[in-house]
Specification:
heterodimer, A: 159 residues, alpha+beta, 5-stranded mixed β-sheet, B: 781 residues, 19 helices
Chain lengths: 159, 781
């Protein structure tokens, strides 16, 4: 049995027929084919699936699609400007070599966007605390921390 | 940074070409590939560490909604699908070949570790495949599990071929001479320790998606792999018996590897074989729980190590005895890691004249163990650098001074353990590290920590590694069953832009940028004019893949060799265009000049002439500008460095924090310092993880206790500091770029540095890794 769910994703209305057990990340990746949102674990630890739901960073592997009924979602594909210009947080990751294999990167950026709204000039310690739910195996976090500090400053508290 | 054609791109901090796609969600990893008529596979895995499979009932699963097929090991055997091969033959101390038990892609007769593949269910959707997998009924008869390395050789055999569960006993060195040296030593330092078992945990789980075309009887396998050509070679020649020309392997964007994606895995074989049976694409993606039980693990050594010294702290001899865990089967390169890539590194940076190493490799009912970032070299460095630091403390010598007394200073240097170091300057990296770490003020920082009730310790590690793997003839004489060269191709387009094809796969290392720098610099192009293609056997000549920090040293050199051919042909074309003698043409970064004149042709003009050969020496020269090269190195490269770690231990809780970490490395010439620093940071975090947070644990029945990110702690951002990193340069003498490789250094040097610091803080001889709060707390009591 399937259920119809509707929401706005990256500014566009979408709807899909899903099972009750379908995870939000499955809807994003398989139904909408927005494959920039990744799955790196099955225990809500790695944060690779992080998206913004109604402006807040959430792990899309840990809620079912039905819970996003009527929500406003932003995924990594919707972050750059329509002409392809990188968002200041994305640009900061590039400038500071804040990514290597790129797999955790969308989740890192999405989490950082939410964090930076309330932290326009964060300390290293604040950034590290904000990354509690995002795992990276490549960078040793060094350049991710620098990227988020620079990106947050560039955002000036605004998404 | 945009590149300018007049400044050298070698050594420039060029921002990465690959970043845009990753930052916008446009990367394409294996699980992102969905094909028309896609089907999905779910594996039934053994819940037992060791069990006879009495029967497998698949009827209920076969009838479940959406199910297309259920296969077991017997189905594969009936179809003559072979077992997974091991790529390195180790010959034991008696001259006999190692024991190679059968490694079927799906278990036959019995399961040998938790997570062993027992059956596969393929269905229309992933959910249907997983639901049906639960309906496969396997009747197991549990057998006693071999888990403890110490008891493996006296336990009941896992495989008939190895009655004492021993794969091989291997040794390097003259034991009698070394025993004699120990008898005369003024001081002997001895350590017994475990080099803890690790789970690689690339954040992208393994995945494979195979499709078959009846039209031409060909296969395409998309797979999260570090070396698609080797995957194809092993799968076609040894397992499926197919012509390589009928199989295309694509490793698209790959989300980290760290060794775990080097190997040919059973899942890759099964989906490829099944794609033909069903005439449908079959996709499998591991969930993290599967990764923990099915990705090859790393390390897991039990070691006794001894160092003999004279009264002045000069090293006289080293004696090492190691038991290495192979796990339940031999993974692709398992056998060479604790031997060829371990014992040969035990000289470290020192002139120790006599070294003996004996390695017993045993089978256990655990997940197979193979290369993980550093692969044998972190284990060797841990032996050497823990011994050195401990010896210095025991002899009341400054550990830095003791190292200086034993450094190799003359190059080339032939070690007693087979390797010949071509170049290095160990004083230079050590001096730089001491300064950058502000070691002279350590006492003040220790006092300041003490005032806050914390114990502060300092530890050093001066590591060596052998990279640029490998001279094929040397590797072959040591048992390698494959060549270890690399291939590259430079395809110059008519307008002078270039596509580079390399067998060195990139899965985070930034080859698309650093390889483009090498090519753009030589040809006088901008970075934007050079595209680097990797990871597709249908596009790239050949490749041995990415591991052992070999990409720039071997893959990069193959590209340089191809560039040499491009320039040589360009010189002939330019001579014709300029009506000059070829010997008068000088070449520098994209300009062919007639010596002593201002007459010149730009690279783009020469390229255009090659493709529009209206004015061209067609009688002497083929049109076009496209060259291949294969490069087989003449020696290993020897990156080395000095690491200084400071830790702070909370006396009440045992919690240990890295207070500072300094790394000064010599990677030879550096193409892109930004990328190199990133590689060091990542390696350090993995090394710190091994030392402080990561420990793979099996309980006595062979159940994996640490089977998720909640139980097995890869470092989080708060577990590591901002690192202080720098480099010193002694260019490699035997490759044209002077490069050595940088991918594994951090993971090799960090564990010993951290543990030297922890033991210094606690004032104890040894603490086992990982030095978790609980472990440290116990040592404080």
């Amino acid at each position: 049995m399937t259920i119809k769910v509707s929401m706005r994703v990256n500014g566009k209305p979408v709807s899909a027929e899903v099972e009750a057990r379908t995870l939000l990340v499955t809807l994003i990746r398989e139904n909408l084919r927005l494959t920039g949102t990744h799955v790196g674990c099955d225990t809500a630890q790695c944060g690779a699936c992080t998206v913004l739901m109604n402006g807040r960073a959430i792990k899309s592997c840990s809620i079912v699609a039905m819970q996003a009924e009527g929500a406003e979602l932003l995924t990594i594909e919707g972050v750059a400007q329509p002409d392809g210009t990188l968002h200041p947080m994305q640009a900061a990751f590039k400038e500071n070599h804040g990514l290597q294999c790129g797999f955790c990167t969308p989740g890192m950026v999405m989490n950082a966007l939410d964090f930076a709204k309330s932290h326009p000039d964060p300390t290293e310690q604040e950034v590290r605390e904000s990354l509690e739910g995002n795992l990276c195996r490549c960078t040793g976090y060094h350049n991710i921390v620098k990227s988020i500090m620079a990106g947050a400053k560039a955002m000036g508290g605004k998404l | 940074m945009n590149s300018a054609t007049n400044a050298s791109l070698i050594g420039a901090r060029v921002l990465r070409k690959e970043d845009y796609r990753f930052l916008t969600g446009s990367g394409q990893y294996t699980d992102d590939v969905s094909l028309p008529r896609q089907s999905y596979a779910a594996f039934v895995r053994s819940p037992h560490a060791h069990a006879r499979i009495k029967s497998i009932k698949t009827d209920k699963a076969q009838k479940a909604p959406g199910v297309l097929a259920v296969y077991t090991g017997e189905d594969l055997a009936a179809a003559k699908v072979g077992g997974l091969p091991c790529g390195w033959l180790i010959t034991d101390v008696n001259g006999k070949p190692m024991k190679e038990p059968p490694y079927p892609p799906l278990a036959r007769g019995k399961a040998c570790h938790v997570g062993d593949r027992v059956a596969v269910v393929i269905a229309e959707t992933l959910e249907q495949a997983r639901d049906a997998a639960e309906k496969v009924k396997v009747d197991y008869e549990e057998l006693p599990a071999v888990v403890d390395l110490r008891k493996a050789s006296s336990s009941k055999p896992i495989h008939d071929i190895a009655p004492d569960n021993t794969c091989y006993v291997w040794a390097l060195g003259d034991k009698a001479a070394i025993d004699a040296a120990f008898a005369k030593a003024a001081h002997v330092t001895k350590l017994d320790f475990v080099n803890n078992r690790l789970v690689p945990n690339a954040i992208e789980p393994r995945a494979a998606n195979a499709t078959y075309s009846r039209a031409d009887d060909s296969y395409t396998l998309y797979v999260a792999s570090q070396n698609p050509h080797v995957e194809r070679l092993l799968m076609t020649a040894f397992v499926l018996g197919l012509p390589e020309s009928k199989v295309r392997v694509v490793a698209p964007d790959v989300g980290g590897g760290f060794g775990s994606k080097i190997y040919l895995y059973g899942e890759d074989v099964v989906v490829t074989w099944a794609a033909k049976q069903l005439n449908r694409p079959v996709k499998w993606t591991a969930d993290r729980s599967e990764s923990y039980v099915s990705d090859a693990h790393g390390r897991d050594h039990l070691t006794t190590a001894e160092l003999a010294l004279d009264k002045d702290g000069k090293f006289l001899a080293m004696r090492v005895k190691t038991t290495a865990n192979m796990g339940a089967y031999l993974s692709t390169f398992a056998s060479c890691i604790p031997t060829i890539l371990y014992a040969t590194l035990l000289a470290g940076q020192y002139t120790t004249p006599l070294i003996y190493c004996e390695v017993t490799a045993v089978f256990t009912n655990t997940t197979p163990v193979d290369a993980y970032r550093g692969a044998g070299r972190p284990e060797a460095t841990y032996v050497v650098e823990r011994l050195v630091e401990t010896a210095a403390r025991e002899m009341k010598l400054d550990p830095v001074e003791m190292r200086r007394r034993n450094f190799i200073r003359q190059f080339p240097y032939q070690t007693p353990v087979a390797l010949c170091y071509d170049t290095g300057n160990y004083e230079a990296t050590l001096d730089a590290a001491l300064q950058l770490a502000d070691v002279k003020n350590f006492g003040k920082r220790k006092d300041e920590s003490a005032r806050r009730g914390k114990l502060r310790g300092i530890g050093y590690a001066c590591y060596i590694e052998a990279c640029g793997i490998a001279p094929s003839n040397v590797a072959g004489s040591l048992g390698a069953r494959a060549g270890l060269f690399e291939a590259g191709e430079i395809r110059v387009h008519p307008t002078g832009t270039v596509t580079v094809f390399t067998g060195s796969h990139s899965h985070g290392q930034g080859h698309e940028t650093s390889f483009a720098q090498v090519v753009a610099d030589r040809l006088g192009l901008t970075i934007e004019q050079v595209e680097v293609v990797h990871g597709d056997t249908s596009k790239i000549l050949f490749g041995m893949g990415t591991y052992g920090s070999r990409s720039i040293a071997v893959g990069g050199t193959a590209i340089v060799k191809a560039l040499d051919k491009i320039v040589a042909k360009g010189r002939k074309i330019a001579a014709h265009l300029l009506e000059a003698s070829e010997s008068d043409i000088e070449y520098d970064r994209g300009q062919f000049k007639v010596a002593g004149t201002d007459r010149k042709k730009m690279f783009g003009e020469v390229a255009f002439a090659a493709y529009v050969p209206h004015n061209y020496p067609l009688d002497k020269l083929e049109p076009g500008l496209n060259e291949n090269a294969f490069y087989d190195p003449t020696n290993f490269t020897f990156p080395a460095g000095s690491y200084v770690c400071e830790v702070e231990v909370d006396k009440d809780t045992g919690a240990t924090q890295i207070a500072a970490f300094t790394a000064v490395d010599d990677f030879g010439r550096i193409i892109n310092p930004m990328i190199v620093e990133g590689q060091v940071h990542g390696g350090l975090a993995q090394g710190i993880g091994q030392a402080l947070t990561e420990g793979c644990r099996y309980e006595s029945s062979g159940q994996l206790v640490t089977g998720s990110f909640m139980d097995y702690c890869i470092p989080r951002s708060s577990d590591v500091p901002l690192f202080k990193v720098d480099t010193r340069e002694t260019p490699c003498t035997h490759n044209p770029l002077g490069v050595k490789g940088c991918g594994e250094a951090g993971a090799i040097g960090a564990p010993a540095a951290v543990m030297n610091a922890v033991t210094d803080a606690l004032g104890v001889k040894d603490v086992p890794m990982p030095a978790t709060a609980q472990t440290v707390w116990k040592h404080l009591r």
